[in-house]
């Protein structure tokens, strides 16, 4: 297992080196603050990925998958950030396709996390995951169609909001919320409520980015990307750290 995670680490590091080697065509300018934010978030993502994979073996077996998935989220995002920065620095356009492909992979992975942390401590139906997945897809397809002009941007925003509100309903008062509310495990309820706060407050940054970057007057790619980058930094790294912290405290309790 140790060996496997070292191989994963080496692969991620190699990807990072090879994609930054391609960047020689366009250099980051000192006043390109959006471009700088792409860099900062990329480095945060790779650091978090290495951290989660290195830590996965130190937590109790039932939490390992959750920590692995946290590392996959930041790892997938890291690779996309290298490409997104490239698009931004060379063209000054929003890397919309890469952004949404990244979300299409990482948001469902995070929805799996809700299921996994529940499943780490009790028996729960998989329908919890499927419902959250459907909400995510509606949210992202709405946003993508609106941002790319396939449909009226405001209509896309409304569809996206509907998907997000459905997810919130599920994790607060739907099946997932009820399963978490059954109590009994301190680390689980702490992690679940922290993840809930992230999906409520942290995720609210995205529709705001859409309002400021797409819906208000003329579209502003600077505003859009700086807000999305900040949101990704919080919602991927902090989300993973919350899971890791719960895993650690549960592991310590179990070994006492
Ligand atoms: C790691 C990436 C994450 C957690 C991305 C989350 C994205 C959202 C919560 C996006 C939400 C949107 C709305 C709620 C309405 C407008 C369209 C979106 C897609 C920006």
Describe it:
The chain has 256 residues and is mostly helical. The chain has a single domain, classed as Rhodopsin 7-helix transmembrane proteins (Rhopdopsin 7-helix transmembrane proteins, Up-down Bundle). It is built from 9 helices and no strands. It has helices at 2-21, 33-55, 61-91, 96-119, 127-147, 153-172, 175-181, 186-215, 221-255. Helix 2 runs antiparallel to helix 3, helix 3 (61-91) runs antiparallel to helix 4 and helix 4 (96-119) packs antiparallel against helix 5 (127-147). The longest helix has 35 residues, at 221-255. The two termini are 24 Å apart. Residues 18-23 have low confidence and may be disordered.
Highlighted features:
256 residues; mainly alpha; Rhopdopsin 7-helix transmembrane proteins; 9 helices; 0% strand
Briefly characterize the structure:
This protein has 256 residues and is mainly α. The protein has helices spanning 2-21, 33-55, 61-91, 96-119, 127-147, 153-172, 175-181, 186-215, 221-255.
Q: How many structural domains?
A: 1
Classified by CATH, the class is Mainly Alpha
CATH topology: Rhopdopsin 7-helix transmembrane proteins
Name the ligand types: retinal
With helices defined by DSSP (H or I, 4 residues minimum), what is the helix count?
Answer: 9
Tell me what portion of residues adopts beta-strand conformation.
Answer: under 5%
The largest sheet is: none
- The tally of strands reads 0
Q: How far from one another are the termini? A: 24 Å
């Amino acid at each position: 297992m140790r060996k496997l995670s070292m191989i994963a680490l080496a692969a991620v590091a190699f990807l990072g080196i090879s994609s930054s080697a391609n960047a020689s065509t366009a250099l980051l300018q000192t006043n390109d603050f959006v471009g700088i934010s792409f860099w900062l978030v990329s480095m945060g993502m790779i650091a978090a990925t290495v951290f989660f994979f290195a830590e996965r073996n130190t937590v109790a077996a039932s939490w390992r998958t959750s920590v692995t998935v946290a590392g996959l989220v930041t790892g997938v995002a890291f690779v996309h950030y290298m490409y997104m920065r490239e698009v931004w620095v060379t063209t000054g356009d929003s890397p919309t396709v890469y952004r949404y492909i990244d979300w299409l992979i990482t948001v469902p992975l995070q929805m799996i996390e809700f299921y996994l942390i529940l499943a780490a401590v009790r028996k729960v139906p998989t329908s919890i995951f499927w419902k959250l997945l459907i909400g995510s897809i509606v949210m992202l397809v709405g946003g993508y169609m609106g941002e790319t002009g396939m449909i009226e941007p405001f209509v896309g925003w409304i569809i996206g909001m509907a998907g997000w509100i459905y997810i919130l309903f599920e994790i607060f008062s739907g099946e997932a919320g009820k399963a978490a509310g059954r109590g009994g495990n301190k680390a689980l309820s702490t992690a679940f409520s922290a993840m809930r706060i992230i999906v409520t407050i942290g995720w609210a940054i995205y529709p705001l980015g859409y309002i400021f970057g797409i819906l208000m007057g003329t579209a502003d790619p600077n505003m859009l990307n700086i807000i999305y980058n900040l949101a990704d930094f919080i919602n991927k790294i902090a989300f993973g750290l919350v899971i890791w912290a719960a895993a650690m405290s549960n592991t310590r309790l179990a070994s006492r």
